[in-house]
Design brief:
There is one protein chain. The chain contains no helices and eight strands. Helix content is 0%, strand content 41%. The strands form two sheets. It has a four-stranded antiparallel beta sheet with strand order 1-7-3-4, with no helix packed on it. Strands 5-6-2-8 form a four-stranded antiparallel beta sheet, with no helix packed on it. The chain has strands at 33-41, 48-57, 72-78, 81-83, 86-87, 98-105, 112-120, 127-136. It is an all-beta fold. It is elongated.
């Protein structure tokens, strides 16, 4: 290994060899991570908006990612049926320490089960915390 005329050498060089045929799976901890957020939206006479928010950071603070929306892809359900969850931040946006997804909830007498499967490429050294919020629609005024 010729390293030229530098005053330092490679440190902790690691070489891996395998007899496995491609495609070779990435080692555990590499590649996209999958996170599942599940819960129940309350019964509502007027419907509303269900929002799942993710905070991203290194303790004790937050970390701002460029183009936050490009680090996530989601698939979600409401009452076991596929739902159209919309991201709040798109793939090309200002640096942010959060991302959120929203879906309209129709009026209903019973609570609604929801699930959001989030695939993320957020660096492994960052922590993510998720919260669900339900924002009810206001009842039409009678006048």
């Amino acid at each position: 290994l010729d390293q030229g005329d530098r005053q330092h050498t490679l440190g902790r060089l690691r070489l891996s060899v395998t007899t496995a045929r491609p495609p070779i799976p990435a080692p555990k901890g590499y590649g996209p991570q999958r996170i599942v957020v599940e819960g129940r939206a309350p019964a509502t006479a007027c419907g509303g908006l269900l929002v799942i928010a993710a905070r991203i950071g290194r303790p004790p603070g937050s970390t701002h990612l460029r183009d936050t929306g490009s680090h996530f892809s989601v698939e979600g359900t409401i009452d076991g049926r596929s739902g159209a969850w919309k991201p709040v931040l798109g793939p090309e946006t200002y640096p942010s320490s959060w991302q959120a997804w929203r879906i309209e909830i129709e009026p209903g007498a019973d609570p609604r089960a929801f699930g959001l499967s989030i695939q993320t490429t957020v660096p492994l050294d960052l922590e993510s915390a998720f919260e669900a919020h339900f924002i009810p629609r206001e009842a039409p005024s009678r006048g």
